[in-house]
Amino acid sequence: EKFARALFRSMRGNAYTYFQPADLTEFPAEYAVTLQSKSLFVTYYQGGCSPSSAAYEKVIRLCAAFGARCYSWPGSFEEAEKRFADVSSLLADKEKTLRAYEQYFLSEISILLEPVDADCEGRRRRRPLIEAWRRFCVKEKAVYATLNFFEASDVTIRADCWFPAQDEAKLRVVLAEQSARSHASAFLLLHPPTSSPSPPTFFRLPPFLEPFQQLVDTYGVPRYKEANPAVFACVFFPFLFGVMYGDVGHGFLLVLIAAALFYVKANNRVLRMKGELIDMLLEG
Predict the structure, then answer these.
(1) Structural domains of the chain, count
(2) 9: which residues sit within 8 A by CB, 6+ positions away?
(3) Which structural domain, as residue segments, surrounds residue 57?
(4) pTM of the model
(5) What superkingdom heads the lineage (predicted)?
(6) Helical H runs in 113-209?
């Protein structure tokens, strides 16, 4: 209505506009959310339809201001029928292309979801193909991320690392097995420890001490060959926590939550739930 009034005033009453709401019922139901209601209109005015006429320029500028699209009016019934046939043919072709693409898309999805034999942690399991691809990409990314820590030369790559002295025999066995399997030589060279840089801190912990170790690490990591405060924290932290929260009901709720988390972790109920918050709740 605003457009019709503005056009009527700009043409000083020498214009008439007829509106017809567009019929959207022919579109599929899945497109109903994205469709916008539109109206078709025809404007009759005096002054000629030549692009050089002042009336034509007024109508075009007003349509552009209201965001309306302008189309040329057919000069005869035969021309209108020809346009309708062309548009109908174009819509039919696009509909056919859309259906073909949907069929292709669904066929590709079915292939990606088809279970295949995949190696998972040394065991053969049937997983969807897309999951096998994802695991392959994760492994390749991890391999190349590790190789970035190496120093490469013409035919060799070298990396300096720290490892526990008691694991030296295991490392040599693993390197020998991988060398025989991949037909590439890998060996371990020991360098005498130096005062600079200082060796990193490493503690062998049982699983129940890992949450306390993470708690201690938030305050600071012990230096090399220093005592591990996590051993004392596993005794005193629950005691002090119980002193601060002496309410029986509150403690009972915490026990229930801890038991539920332990049950969920023991039964692998959160394999699809990943994130820092889930890891903190389950791992401490």
Answers:
(1) 1
(2) none
(3) 1-73
(4) 0.44
(5) Eukaryota
(6) 129-147, 168-182
